[in-house]
Amino acid sequence: MLVLASNSPRRRELLTLLGLPFTVYSVAIDETPLPEEPPAAYVERLARHKAEQTAARWQGEAFILAADTTVAIQDSKGKWEILGKPQDAQEAERMLRRLRGCTHQVLTGLALLHTSTAQQWSDVCVSEVPVRNFSDAEMYAYIASGDPFDKAGAYAIQHVGFHPVENFSGCFANVMGLPLCHLVRLLEQAGIKIGKDPALQCLDTLNYPCSLATRILEDQEG
């Protein structure tokens, strides 16, 4: 049995594309970054913690799959700032102004845990994301829609009305919250074979032709 340790509708949608039966069971954890914690270490730590906490409550044998996605941007001194989910409209505006016209990183940590053996596998996907120079009016309308409030960095790459990202060539599914090729690679490390091509699923469902899939699936891409 595969258990998705997440309430995210986007992760449920993306995992469904692989054709694997799964159930959803998640727990709340403290997502506060540790002092000076690098973004990649942060998302991997949270994904592992989510998997472990879910496994501790799950009855029976299963593979627990957990993920954590964050947005990170460098300040003028080269220090990475982690942007989580905005708590209100003012914080959403601050984040969107920070990202506007700049390139930032979206990182997703993946963790897979087998409850019977306690064996774990983990991975991190990093995508460079260029944000277009949207207008204040577009930003205010997007914030008023309510869409930013459950999104790291206060935006959704797939939002048709706002379309905040342009000239993107990374993993689209990663920015949505579940990098499918990295996930397939992780599942195969655990002995779980996938019958569907994740790149074709991204093309058919997300209308995004991925240029990275072959390198990722052949374990040549971080």
Commentary on this structure:
- With about 220 residues, this protein is of the alpha/beta class.
- Helix 3 (about 90-100) packs across helix 4 (about 135-145).
- The model has no long low-confidence stretch (mean pLDDT about 95).
- A hairpin with a 5-residue loop joins strand 5 (about 105-115) and strand 6.
- The chain has helices at about 10-15, 40-55, 90-100, 135-145, 170-175, 180-190, 200-205, 215; strands at about 1-5, 20-25, 65-75, 80-85, 105-115, 120-130.
- Helix content is about 35%, strand content about 20%.
- Strands 1, 2, 3, 4, 5 and 6 form a 6-stranded mixed beta sheet that branches.
- It starts with a strand and ends in a 5-residue tail after the last helix.
Question: Which keywords apply here?
Answer:
222 residues; single chain; alpha/beta; six-stranded mixed sheet; 6 strands
Quick take:
The protein is an alpha/beta fold. The protein has helices spanning 9-16, 39-57, 89-99, 136-145, 172-176, 180-189, 198-206, 213-217, and strands at residues 2-4, 22-24, 63-74, 80-83, 103-114, 120-130.
